[in-house]
Design goal:
The protein has 232 residues and is an all-alpha fold. The chain has eight helices and no strands.
Amino acid sequence: MRRTLLIVLVALSAACGRAEADRSAPETPEFSELPTSSGTSGAGDSASGGGEDTTGGGGAPTGTEAHAADTDDLKVFGFATSDEAAIAGQLTAVAGTVASLEEHLQGLDLEGARADAQTLIAQAKALETDAGDAEQRQRPLEPEDRGLVTARKDAIAAFGLTAEYASAAAGFADLLLAASLNELVSAAEDAAQLTGTGDDLTLAYTELNAELVAWAEANPADAARALATYGG
C-alpha cells in the first residue's frame, strides 16, 4: 500500500523543478540564459514545441523571426518567462516537502507525514493561485508573431495544468492530515489519478521553454525589452 502512495509522490516530485525538464531536453537553454538588458541570448538548440505552428523536427518554431514586436508579443514573452521562473521556484519548494513526506511515510512516521502534509497544503494552494494568475495573464493577449501564438497557447496549457495539479496535491495532503496509518491505503487509491501528471508537466514546460528561447534568440532586443517591461 505504501508503494502506491510513493508512486504518486514520485510523480509529483518529478514535476517539481526545471532540472527534470532539462534532463528530458538537455539541449534546451535555461531561462537564466535568455536575453538580459544587454540583448544577448543563450546558445543551444531548441526542442520543437507543440501545436500547428511548430516544425516537425528539432528546430525552432516556425514564424520565429526578427520583427518589430507589438505590445502583446512583448507581454506574452515577458509574462511567460517571468511566471515560469517563479513557478519553477515554487515547484522546487514543493519537491523538498514531497521528499520529506516520502521519507516519513517510508518510516511509518505518521506525525512527521502530517507535518509535511500541512506544509504541502500551504505550498500547493499558493502554487495553484499563482499558476492560475499566470494562465489568466496570457488569455487576453493576441500576439502577432506565430511563434509566440504557439508559446501563448502552451503557456496557458502548462499553467492551467500546474494549477490543477496543485489543487490535487493540496487535496491529497488534506487526506493525509485526516488519515490514520491504515487509512493511507484508501488515500493512496484516491490519489492514484496524480500518477503520470509529473511527466505531463515536464513535457509542457520543456515545450514552452523551447519556444520562448527560440523567439529570444531570433529577437534579442525585443526579448530584452519584454523582460525589462513585463518580466516582473
